[in-house]
């Protein structure tokens, strides 16, 4: 609460100076409207939980929620901002789902190219919230090692899978079927929340992965199917990273097509000429290792 009040007070300084920086580990800045916008982002996340839970009581096929919000949230640590993130939107939503709606077991998938260290830290000791992150090995903020598996009563409820640069559609297909699905099935969630970062796209300037619009379509479709299998279709996506506007907009739109059961337009939107061979051997080794660590 002290951080929230401090941010609110900092808005006067932001108004006077036009722009202020909030942390030293990344260019997390604020303008005079940042407090309001951050509250709106977190509030929209809570409203989506309300809406999706209400819909799941009325139909066996509830709509997927998607929080199209900025600032993103998965780097924000419990005590403050980090990495473009001000409040941990998905973390707040997870705890809200538990405390307000009685959805005790929350499964979080984070496929942003960067490790969601804030979400990781928020629930590292919590056995009722499973955090699963795939991210580019060696990328910002340098956290998310395979050996980070949770602690105390939460040991085993954190799964971090750093993937080699150049990983793309083929790798993520393996990850979904061999890591995400068995982890979720064993955990038996009441709701699935997704930190949907689109900065692993091959066109994104801040990383070195080879996701495509088609990759994101399949992830959205597969996660939606998994939610129907395990938790009555209760599933919400939260926008995280994505810094190339064209690939970001195309990938988000194709994710919506997946939610609606429409066909992907990735064959029109993706350019196979920019792709190169994935590091399949190294990716396979990483997948096998994480399966061994977590007995999947």
From TrEMBL:
Chain segments annotated as transmembrane: none
Gene3D superfamilies per the UniProt record, alphabetical: Histone deacetylase domain (3.40.800.20)
InterPro entries attached to this UniProt entry: HDACs, His_deacetylse_dom, His_deacetylse_dom_sf, Ureohydrolase_dom_sf
Recorded GO CC terms: cytoplasm; histone deacetylase complex
GO biological process, one term: epigenetic regulation of gene expression
Gene Ontology molecular function, alphabetical: histone deacetylase activity
Domain Histone deacetylase per the UniProt entry, residue ranges: 3-257
PANTHER family: HISTONE DEACETYLASE 14, CHLOROPLASTIC, HISTONE DEACETYLASE HDAC1-RELATED
Stated name of the protein: Histone deacetylase domain-containing protein
Originating organism: Ceratodon purpureus (Fire moss)
